[in-house]
Amino acid sequence: MTDYQTIIEQIHNDLLKHKSYGEVAAYIPELAMVDAEKFGVCLSTIDGQIYHVGDWQEHFSIQSIVKVMLLSMAYTKLGGQLWQRVGVEPSGTPFNSLGTLEHDNGIPRNPFSNAGALVVCDVLLDVYDDPKQAILEMFRDISGDPGIEFDPVVAASEKATGYRNVALVNFLRSLGNINNHVEQVFNLYLDCCSISMNSEQLARSFLVYANNGKTLDGQTQLLNSSQTKRMNAIMLTCGFYDEAGDFAYQVGLPGKSGVGGGIVAVLPKHFSIAVWSPRLNEKGNSYRGLKFLERFTSATGESIF
Ligand code: DON
């Protein structure tokens, strides 16, 4: 059996000896204040084991990681019809790009770009009475932790400065791919991005993607196994924007990043692993998070490939 605790401690210690590069996500003023040197890891397996190292108990803003849950909720409601509104192709463009939308008649290339997630939020506003509460309840349920909350300070900070997302939601609306009021869609998206979790809560939540769509106790079935396969496929191909190919090449797991410095990755039928380190590389993905996971899958020999 793999000695996960020793492996994650070794990699964590080793990376701490080397300088971490990159910058925190200062375009969201509140995130500019986060301690850039934090570094936490949690691994959770489908046989119920849990392993931690470093700052795993500290909460951080999950940001774009929430897009996986938003997509899962929209997909279970709409099924394949959802793909009329958003594609499943890697974009090769940065997370906040407006670039391909005009050419593609307002259909975002995939649901993990900001444009794609805004369309998904528009869908959720149509199918849930209170989508903001529904997403929070879903996280509380699948993580088994009723303490998970939004961070209203982070949400307000981004709402005040989110010019790119204002542009995106208005552009999408002008192209006919947003039905609700732009402010409602913008607010729902940024409230969801502000959800605050620690590495253990995040790893536990994403265990559903390793466990055929259900929680370990079998009480909640978020997705069926076919839907779970599809969510993992989109994480693998689109989870890291214009670095998705590099992540697949270096790490070899489906995963998702957020500009709060979190990365969560999944080995279907085995485990989920969350890493948090706030310094981001130029693609907006955690510098140390990526390094850690590359070392982890190399040391264990455990990846989807
Ligand atoms: O919309 C934004 O710009 C942020 N709330 C989320 C972006 C993000 O996390 C990109 N991920 N690496």
Question: What do these coordinates show?
Answer:
The protein contains eleven helices and seven strands. It is an alpha+beta fold and 305 residues long. The chain has one domain: 3-Layer(aba) Sandwich (Beta-lactamase). The strands form two sheets. The chain has a five-stranded antiparallel β-sheet with strand order 2-1-7-6-5. The protein has a two-stranded antiparallel ribbon with strand order 3-4. Helix 2 crosses helix 3, helix 4 packs across helix 8 and helix 6 crosses helix 7. It is globular, with a radius of gyration of 18 Å. The two termini are 19 Å apart. It binds 6-diazenyl-5-OXO-L-norleucine. The site of 6-diazenyl-5-OXO-L-norleucine (DON) has 13 residues, from loops. 6-diazenyl-5-OXO-L-norleucine binds next to loops.
